[in-house]
Write a structure and sequence with these properties.
By secondary structure, this protein is mostly helical. 71% of the residues lie in helices and 0% in strands. α3 runs antiparallel to α5.
Length: 101
Amino acid sequence: MFGTTHSDVRLLGRVVTRGPLWRVAGLAVHCTNGAIFGLVFERTGLRGPKAGVVVAEIENVALWPAVALVDRSLLRDRRVFAQEAAMHALFGAVLGTLVRG
């Protein structure tokens, strides 16, 4: 959809290992990050899809510069940023829908 082959699972997995298990490692790290994010979201009392999208996008923008530590070219790639923004918005909307007060 965004014309990029970027994958958070690949990025995170290759930070953890260069071996053949990068997919497993990347998926584990990515799922753990999402679970921790969801727990913090719920524990802070936030509720609803709108709040989920807002905090997911804040997290995305706040952590975006950190990609330069792994791959500097990603930092300037607008398609990758747009993909990340869309995926974080979707995650936030689903999370906020599931966490209702």
